[in-house]
Specification:
The protein is of the alpha/beta class. Helix content is about 40%, strand content about 15%. It has 12 helices and 14 strands. A 6-stranded mixed beta sheet has the order 8-9-7-10-11-12, sandwiched between helices. Strands 1-2 form a two-stranded parallel sheet. The protein has a two-stranded parallel sheet with strand order 3-4. Helix 4 packs antiparallel against helix 5 and helix 5 packs antiparallel against helix 6.
């Protein structure tokens, strides 16, 4: 369900995306609803009249789960469950569940668990309302004691601290690996884009890496880095695949995946992958740029790639897209179309990022005699020495 305060076409696109997110959890969708709303209310987010109509619809169709496209406060979530006597979640919880389902490595499991714990902490009150544990003591000193809610809050807080400690250890290991790459002076690019835009497909296409490629949302959660040798004797660079972005990404996930997103923050350049076969490409591009600014990578050099051009039903749309995204490279990782243009653009970008400098050093006569030669280079002290290096 989506309440409409934004333009209707954007709201419809967001609702379709929520439909895909819910279906990826193997949940069958029976009904979708757009709710026009001028001012959100504190109790139900929508007005009481519309809330009553939704309750009647839930009872008539036997629906056992309501999903809101907007974030619900803990009190709103509790009010909806009391009103409808059914489970109510929001977009953030759906995304968290998808991440939990997709997590494969230890780091991903820790990141998702941390995000879920921080999300559920203020919502514990809707699970435990009347349970308590009586305190011991002699007559007159006994009381209600520590409530079950307080015990659960303490358990969750302890688990949050433990996850953060373990993630710090993982981050330290990643920093060691990253420092080795920095010392090698190899330029690194980060592949970013909306979820399911084809980032992993691009990494496999360019580097022949054995990485997971699936047509589903958030198939990749962990960063994968591979080497690429540019053609015609070009330099060697590193390309990193990262987690996909999405509209209204939960802030808990951005915080939990900080170590993963640092691969993008520390990259020398960014490959921004766009899926041209999906409606709303401009909105998705804006979402990716917004997330890049939020994590501190908004000023990186960007090479835009218009992926999946083989899926365009009307190729006449491509010139319009190229006018909207100047200097973008049309590409199909399936057919190979556009690969040469992409490699040329990559080579040009790498050359711009590789600065060649010259330093001149004058040996003072007080160190070496006039006319003496430097023992290391054999040059005369009256000459300027030029030494090119890469910076």
């Amino acid at each position: 369900m989506r309440y409409v305060t934004s333009p209707r076409n954007e709201a419809e696109e967001s609702l379709k995306e929520l439909h895909a997110l819910v279906c990826s959890l193997q949940i069958q969708v029976y009904h979708s609803l757009l709710v026009p709303l001028k001012i959100p209310t504190a109790r139900y987010l929508v007005g009481t009249g519309k809330a009553g109509a939704i309750r009647d619809l839930v009872e008539e169709q036997g629906i056992d789960l309501i999903v809101f496209d907007e974030s619900l406060s803990p009190s709103q979530q509790r009010n909806w469950e009391l009103l409808t006597n059914t489970c109510v979640i929001d977009r953030q919880e759906v995304i968290l569940e998808i991440f939990a389902d997709r997590a494969r490595t230890r780091e991903a499991h820790l990141q998702v668990e941390l995000a879920r714990m921080e999300y559920s902490l203020p919502r514990l009150t809707r699970k435990w309302t009347n349970l308590s544990q009586q305190r011991g003591g002699y007559r007159g000193a006994r009381g209600a004691g520590e409530t079950q809610l307080e015990l659960d809050r303490r358990k969750v807080l302890r688990r949050i601290q433990k996850c953060k400690r373990e993630l710090r250890l993982v981050e330290e290991q990643r920093m060691v690996q990253r420092s080795r790459r920095v010392k090698s002076e190899i330029l690194q690019g980060s592949i970013v884009g909306y979820t399911n835009a084809g980032k992993s497909s691009l990494l496999r296409f360019l580097t022949h890496a054995d990485v997971l490629v699936e047509d589903k949302l958030f198939a990749t959660l962990d960063p994968t880095t591979r080497k690429l040798r540019l053609p015609n004797g070009g330099e060697e660079i590193l390309l990193s695949d990262t987690v996909g972005f999405i509209r209204k990404i939960p802030p808990q996930l951005i915080a939990a995946f900080k170590a993963t997103l640092e691969e993008t923050v520390l990259a020398d350049f960014i490959l921004h992958v766009l899926d041209v076969s999906t409606p709303g490409i401009h909105q998705r591009a804006a979402t990716t740029r917004s997330v890049l600014r939020e994590i501190g990578a908004g000023d990186k050099p960007v090479l835009t790639i218009l992926n999946k051009i083989d899926l365009l039903t009307d190729r006449s749309e491509l010139p319009h897209l190229l006018s909207d995204f100047p200097h973008a490279i049309p590409l199909s990782t399936k057919t190979g179309e556009g690969k040469d243009e992409l490699l040329k653009a990559l080579s040009s970008l790498v050359k711009q990022r590789t600065v060649r400098s010259e330093s001149r050093i004058l040996f003072h006569s007080s160190v070496l005699g006039e006319g003496d030669n430097c023992p290391d280079t054999g040059h005369s002290t009256s000459q300027w020495l030029e030494s090119p290096y890469h910076g």
